Amino acid sequence: MRTEDVLAAIKTGLWRWDNASGIVSLDAEAARLLGLPAEPVELTEGAVRSRFHPVDWNEIDGIVSLAVAEDTLAEARLRIMDESGRVLRTVRSRSKPMVDGTDYRLVGTLQEVAEPQPGTAARTPVTGEWRRSREAFLLDAGRALAEARSTAEVLRVAASLSMPGFSPDGLAVFGVAGDRLTIIGHHGHSAGDEGPFAEMALDTDYPAAEVVRTGRAIYLPTPDDYRDRYPATWPLAQRFGRESWAFLPLIVAGRTMGAWMAAFKYRVGFTPDERSVLTTVARMLAQALTRAGVAESERELSLGLQRAMMPVLGPAIPGMEVAARYVPTGGGLQVGGDWYDMIQLPGGRIAFVIGDVQGHDVRAAGLMGQLRIALRAYASEGHRPDAVLSRASRFLYGMTEDDHGAARFATCLYLEVDPATGTLDIARAGHPDPAIRMADGTVLLRPTDGGLPLGIVPDTDYPTTRLTLEPGETLMICTDGLLETGGHDLDTGWIRVRKLLEAYEPGAETLDALADSLVQAVHGPGSHHTTGPLADRREDDIAVLLLSRTAEPARLVAPPRRTAMSVAQAEPERIAAARQRLRELLHDWADEDQVDAAVLMVSEMVTNVLVHTDGDALLVAEASGDHGTRRLRVEVADASDELPHRRRPGEMASSGRGLVLMELLAHAWGVDPRGEGKTIWFELYEDGAEVPAAGGPAPGGPSGDAVA
């Protein structure tokens, strides 16, 4: 009996599909199964395609590609449709792809199969519901693996995957190190179970080793298959009590980087659809492991670069405590242009530097390292703060002027401190102002004179501001990342930082604890629930440096709270800053009306100097005494010898009422000649008692109008 007669007797048809010509040849039985007359026929691919269910036809390309890659049979269940779209029958196709270059020919059989019984759809290889579940699973698995950022995360995701209709209970990922097979990670096994499989030679008779050698998947549906094919290593796998195994290559860019094992406690037939799912997961897993490995290498490189560039704070400073933190941005290589430094200077003085080179990339980190070295060199030569920044600006301008339009700039704050006196000489190049926490917990921004950021123009002047850090006070300087990260701008970010500084207790907490709390407020878990008013969460590098002067022994009287600033003729806008600074100084004053009165008088006094003299105004405000009984004394000095005089403004006059304000609002006020110039002052008492200062004039002061 001929083979064709045997096949016809068992209702099995033959077909041949030539991918190059697009012609499909059917024998009589195959034509009948497709709903055509029972006679041999040659059809175009489109004519045959119209006989299959569209969903099933879409599966053929994937099944054939898988069979070509694994050199196995292409097997599928296909629903046959008539012209009206009604399903006639379900056939099973088994064919062998024969590859010729980029083309292939399929030669195989078609055989009718019975419809699945109710309740068995979950284990049926091809159903519409199974396909929908598979597509959803692959989409979810791809998303989860794409989001994994480390090898450990990739392995956790792989272990949590629940495949549609069949899920492995044991997983292992093998890597290659030279001529050895290693285990990257595993799941579903006890600790130490990987011992016999670790550091295995690639020529070992073991499925994972063969997969790495050949680049082809290996499916072992039963223990007998495993034992017959790999008798040498079967005893190693037998003790785990598994029934089926799949070993798939992890291939990236045509290179086999390892193998993935999926083991099952129940029998799995590994149908083409199941193999397709496993193969797709293996490809995604290989890509995820590669990305994670690259990311980990980049993180290790960037962290090593940052450690090499970031300084270690020098030896302890007598009478002072120092703390600093640096946190790179959350994305990319995690390198950036922020830095801080501490420089020992001749004569016992110490220099502190904090800055921010534009950008968050390797170029910014490289410029930061060069700029930091240049600043250390200029400071060590003995230059004053203004000269150090001027030279640094010229240096950075020369470094970036040839970047073809990609010039970078840097903000910087440089200060020198005398530990014995607490004197601070500060020069600032476009950087945020320093903040000082006073001994009583009040936190103030200390505006300082400044110039353009470094590198904008080659020759720039940077004026120097002198402050005094009193015993018990803490200075904070930081980059804008501490203020703006988390959807904040400089103003709302400052409010967040000020609360933390006010809550700091020097006796109960260390300065390092304060530095940690400042960073945690931005990058800690709670920061995601306290975002600023801006829509986005802008990420930036963070550098913060804290300097605290050791407090003197406790005194019976609280230390005075003091602030000072100058207002130049060319800077009338600083009057608003003077008002704000006074409000911050009196943030806990008992009577809010007195605060408003003090702010109004300061505004009038400083304005009078700018309008009626040719010099600058120097404002000094001091609050002394215990809370509830404090005295506020505010002095405004100028270089004019002309004393104020009383005026009688008309009803429509726009000036001349300053004296009325002083007499109505101040508990005491007066004018003191001081050699070249004079000082106008007033005092307010928190408890309201009108007790003039010793040696000062009685309330009401001299006859004269202190303000215009």
From TrEMBL:
<dbReference type="Pfam" id="PF13581">
    <property type="entry name" value="HATPase_c_2"/>
</dbReference>
<feature type="domain" description="GAF">
    <location>
        <begin position="136"/>
        <end position="299"/>
    </location>
</feature>
<dbReference type="InterPro" id="IPR036457">
    <property type="entry name" value="PPM-type-like_dom_sf"/>
</dbReference>
<dbReference type="Pfam" id="PF07228">
    <property type="entry name" value="SpoIIE"/>
</dbReference>
<feature type="domain" description="PPM-type phosphatase">
    <location>
        <begin position="317"/>
        <end position="549"/>
    </location>
</feature>
<dbReference type="InterPro" id="IPR052016">
    <property type="entry name" value="Bact_Sigma-Reg"/>
</dbReference>
<dbReference type="InterPro" id="IPR029016">
    <property type="entry name" value="GAF-like_dom_sf"/>
</dbReference>
<dbReference type="InterPro" id="IPR003594">
    <property type="entry name" value="HATPase_dom"/>
</dbReference>
<dbReference type="InterPro" id="IPR003018">
    <property type="entry name" value="GAF"/>
</dbReference>
<keyword id="KW-0378">Hydrolase</keyword>
<dbReference type="InterPro" id="IPR036890">
    <property type="entry name" value="HATPase_C_sf"/>
</dbReference>
<dbReference type="InterPro" id="IPR001932">
    <property type="entry name" value="PPM-type_phosphatase-like_dom"/>
</dbReference>
<protein>
    <submittedName>
        <fullName>SpoIIE family protein phosphatase</fullName>
    </submittedName>
</protein>
<dbReference type="Pfam" id="PF13185">
    <property type="entry name" value="GAF_2"/>
</dbReference>
<dbReference type="InterPro" id="IPR035965">
    <property type="entry name" value="PAS-like_dom_sf"/>
</dbReference>
